Amino acid sequence: MEKTPVWKKNLRVSAVSVFLAGIAFSEITPFLSLYIDTLGKFTHQELSFWSGTVFSAVYVVAALVSPIWGKLADKKGRKPMILRASLGMAIVFTLMGVAQNVWQLLFLRGMQGVFAGFISNSNALVAAETPKHKSGKALGIMSSCTTGGQLLGPFAGGALSQVFSYRVTFFITGALLFTCFVLSILFIHEDDFVPIKSEERGNFKDTIKQFKSGQLILGLLLTTLIIQAANNSINPIVSLYVRSLMHGAGQVVFVSGVIAALPGIATVAAASYFGGLGDRIGTHKIILGGLIGSIILFFLTAFVQNTVELGVCRFLIGFTDACLFPQVQTMLTKYSPRQLTSRVFSWNQSAMYIGNIFGPLIGSTVSAHFGYSAVFLVTSMIVVLNLLLYRVNILRNI
């Protein structure tokens, strides 16, 4: 019997792990703003402010520490970073379940940022060990598993918080991340890793010169930043928007979980397909279609009148999501030297975090002053900007 290649074994275990991590990270989304509301007495403006701040805190810290972890990954390997992230966040999420005020929750979200990077390092490990002609498919599988977890997470979080409580759901989240730690330490192997010495890394400018097109790489990082800002601009207000559409009546948390999960249904079904299609016709074309579709759908979402219409728009957004972030990762892999994969993915992770900082702050600020619908109009304009920059930085340099 032919022996299974190590990269395939790692792909299988990593796919399961990011699926569980996707559940863990997304199952608190439907009720995080509502959980904040239980930690004090807030006005509409105060609740919007704290929701945006708490959502963003993890990414502020993560953006600062991500380059440090990227350097360490080059020296020690990606597996130690996977173990560091999964165990650290297992502890932090458990502690969130015992927070007594919004300040404690804010601090723990910051600590979550310190230990962030599980999914990105898993993707980097898979990307580095997978043959380049199969990278689109492999990263598509990883994206499908991640979004599959993100799909199930809001359902699970909404149901668990209804059956038990918000706090117990945080404990369950910690247990899921500890499971990721156990799977990774036992079954992930990084046998071919070659450490990169500090003197071999060079500075940012020296590294950019090693790419065929530095502008293309920087353009892709900027694309990631704006994608994340757009997608996360609505996160702090999803459950609050659902509550307003339902006029405060009914199973708001459960419906919020369903709404939050719907994009994942489309993404998990489509990401692998679009990854393979991009390998055949050009990944840059898939990204272009995703940006155009996002502009249209975010604009339409601003005018929904009920949760059914909101759900339809969010479901369709999932198809555009499948055309964007995983495909940007694929382009970074295809246009990067193998020895620079970890560094490029750490840059991409930092770009994600910066986008995740500004997105929730934009959404909470706009909603506080102009209402929830205005958030989707502003987000649509953000994606228009992304499309224009993508044309200049990427399409002209392929």
TrEMBL record:
Q: Where in the cell is it found?
A: Cell membrane
In Gene Ontology terms, what is one molecular function of this protein?
transmembrane transporter activity
Q: Which organism's genome codes for this protein?
A: Lactobacillus equicursoris
Check the record and name the Pfam families matching this protein. Answer: MFS_1 (PF07690), Sugar_tr (PF00083)
Supply the InterPro entries for this chain.
MFS (IPR011701), MFS_dom (IPR020846), MFS_sugar_transport-like (IPR005828), MFS_trans_sf (IPR036259), Tet-R_TetA/multi-R_MdtG-like (IPR001958)
Any one cellular component term from GO for this entry?
plasma membrane
> Which ranges carry the Major facilitator superfamily (MFS) profile domain?
10-398
Show the SUPFAM superfamilies listed in the entry. Answer: MFS general substrate transporter
Identify this protein by name. Multidrug efflux MFS transporter
Stretches that traverse the bilayer = 12-36, 48-69, 81-100, 168-189, 210-230, 250-274, 286-304, 370-390
Instruction: Alphabetically list the UniProt keywords.
Output: Cell membrane, Membrane, Transmembrane, Transmembrane helix, Transport
**UniProt topology in membrane:** Multi-pass membrane protein
